[in-house]
């Protein structure tokens, strides 16, 4: 399957050479205490693409993100990022390598200002860079500029999610892990968030996303991984799944053509 067609603002279109693998899960097991959730999971994520993780409740989708981001330690297998093993590294170490995580739900400090919430994402940067990166983030989300001193709680749900994404982007991450960005958002606001993720991927950021709003997410994703019981049972171009008349069966967790 050829990679997604890209077009420049001047209308020039091209089809990039197939992106290389950036992240590899090799036979990874992980879980919580005695509870094994990821069960010898193997998967790859390609550079500059949006990879969407779908599957039934409890399949382990969020656990994949948490394990990659060092919040859950793998008990077996290897996790490779740019061909180097990163399994079991701390979130701080992974942030330094260019991996950012936007967890599910609301992750702002509601009583702090928009500016303060944003600046918290810059604390690991050298002081000299902080103001520049915050200004860069604000330029991408012009709606925040005039509300920079307002409490974060005064932003709408969609704006709060955008602020979380802006905060994650301060470190100019190579990989953005994002868990259910559309939860609690209206369809129109969700569409804006999805468009933002697409534009980030088009600019080269690799996105690994968990999203229950499968149909909308498939429309902006490049690849989809279907998880069942802690394993990947289907790895498909997103477009192929969108066109599949059996998509609803996939929603229910029964993979089309999977063993
Ligand atoms: N901190 C935890 N301690 C114990 N069990 C957990 C913990 N977090 C998740 N689990 C369990 O691990 C399993 C997988 O959870 P996970 O959140 O990865 O699934 P998911 O596929 O993202 O599900 P959903 O679509 O419902 O969000 C679930 O049975 C869940 O109850």
UniProtKB/TrEMBL annotation:
What's an example of a GO molecular-function annotation for this chain?
Answer: ATP hydrolysis activity
What the entry lists under Pfam families is as follows: ABC_tran
Taxonomic superkingdom: Bacteria
- Report the residue ranges that make up the ABC transporter domain in this protein: 23-254
List the SMART domains. Answer: AAA
Recorded hits in InterPro entries, A to Z, give: AAA+_ATPase, ABC_transporter-like_ATP-bd, BCAA_Transport_ATP-bd_LivF, P-loop_NTPase
For biological process, the GO terms are: L-amino acid transport
Q: Which SUPFAM superfamilies match?
A: P-loop containing nucleoside triphosphate hydrolases
Name the Gene3D superfamilies on file: P-loop containing nucleotide triphosphate hydrolases
Keywords for this protein: Amino-acid transport, ATP-binding, Nucleotide-binding, Transport
**Similarity comment text for this entry:** Belongs to the ABC transporter superfamily.
| Protein name according to UniProt | ABC transporter ATP-binding protein
Q: Which organism is it from?
A: Rhodovastum atsumiense
